Structure prediction request, 608 residues.
Amino acid sequence: MTKRITKKSEPETGHVEYWKPQSGWWYISAVISVLVALGVDTLVPDSQFVNTLPYRVFLEIFITTLIVLWVISFKANSLRKILYHQAQFIFAVGIALTVWDLLSTKSNILQLPFFPGPAQIISVIVSERETFLISSYYSLRLFSVGLILGTILGISTGILIGWYQQWYYWLFPILKVIGIIPSIAWIPIAVVVFPNSFIAGLFLIVIASWFPVAFMVSVGIASTPKVYYEAALTLGANERFLLTNVAIPNAVPDIFTGLTTATGFSFLTLIVSEMIGAKAGLGWYINWAKTWSAYDKVYASIVIMAIVFSIILAVLNSTRNYVLRWKKGISK
Amino acid sequence: MSKQEILINISGINRVYYDTTGKTTVALQDVDLDIRKGEFITFIGPSGCGKTTLLRLIAGLDSPQSGVVSIEGQPIEKPGYERGFVFQQAALFPWKTVEENIAIGLKARKVFKEKKQYIKDYIDLIGLTGFEKAYPHEISGGMAQRVAIARALINEPKVLLLDEPLGALDAFTRIELQTTIRRIWKKTGTTIVLVTHDVDEAVFLSDRIAIMTARPGRISEVITVNLKPERDRNDDEFIILRRRVLEKLELAGKHWSSRLIDPLEQPSISGVGEAI
Prediction:
């Protein structure tokens, strides 16, 4: 009898995920377009005073990576699919860099300081790397302490509200009202109440992450299907077991939904609160650069933020995919 | 097994539902029944006859306005693991693997360490060896119901309550699982109470069939199934009994449910279960 039972086949998502033309020509074009960007920067004379060496090194690393990955991909079919799928986009990036470089550094149509070229931005990132590292460190420290505290508070209050009627009665209305206030509205109060800018920023990020997490957790707990409780009860569960083994696991997907929202709010709150009171961090740096009209540094910090925040979101996303591996279609 | 020893006593049960408009529905009226230890008894009847309500009363998931349901003389007030329950939708915990779902009862009763070696036996019993680490979304509906049965059985319940467990499955899977349920019942000797609207299923599995009527819900007749232990759906006696149950249901029910399967219209399925 067991022979007749077969595991349901996984949905075939491969062809949906990588639907762009699987042709080597697009990939070769992509490499050529980045080569053109490099060639243009090397051969066309500059009309702005810019150290273009870091930009060219960057393009060389980019090209080398593309070629190395391509060689590896002859042995790894899945990598090949990804590369070929991305080929058109990389091609466009090469073109865009070329055009941007020509418009700014090469022709001075886009003028400094407000509209620097790619070479200028990369040169600033390299020359100011220490400041960026320290600023990123301060930002990350404030962000992670705040988000972790806010998440712990959010999960605990969410569980209390979702599970106990008394807590729901007293806390839920407060959560509902305070939760919709953007956390940065608390800035004037935070800077007066708290002894230093770190704690004030921390407070704001805790506020920004606490409420979305608490709200989603309470909803997740309250929406546990009744049949799960009934099943657990007929298997010998007591109330405590229902909470820890039925309601909370059922709310885990909602915890992640809340956490994703909280992360977004926290990025915003982090940068704004650093711009206002702090003496360190990416938000502080961007504000400081602005007062000196050093717009190349402003753009550079934006690039750094994009990288740092993308990494944080990627970590969050892969944690979520791992924890929720029991969910249908979560790997997408 | 002693057929005469009574395990569950249902006496004078009344259960009325009130909806928000104040309308009342009598789900069960003056229901009396004794369920014997080790027997396989089926509640069958049209929609709204209260058969699921009666099963939920035994489970302790619902309580009557009047009357008593007792098990071994003890009145039933709340759910407990000695009355295992299998829902129509398997109700497996989606965040737990097959193995972990079966282990839930052991964990809830805090006997996991002592009894975890039995998990394997129950996976074998339901024929899901090799699927221990699969999550519920990766297995079929029939397999999920097998897991639900094993999950209830690992607690060694005094009675296993099955609430239309095969209702959502296709005809072939249903027959396959009927054979499995009969095999498990013979092997474990557990008392089983089944709720179904499938006459074929009732005759194939039961020692006794309680026929129920709707509005008000009550038991109109209890039929004893005197067939040989190895049941054959093509057997003359089987067909005669099936027709008898069907006639009783038609007589009893003014609110005839179209969901009832007329076995005479489906000759192609008959006997498939034996071939598996």
About this structure: The interface with chain A takes residues 59-61, 78-81, 83-85, 87, 89, 91, 93-97, 104-105, 107-109, 127-131, 134-140, 142-143, 151-152, 155, 161, 176, 180, 276 of chain B (CB under 8 Å). Residues 6-82+157-275 of chain B form a domain with the Rossmann fold fold (CATH 3.40.50.300). Residues 233 and 239 of chain B are 7 Å apart (CA to CA).
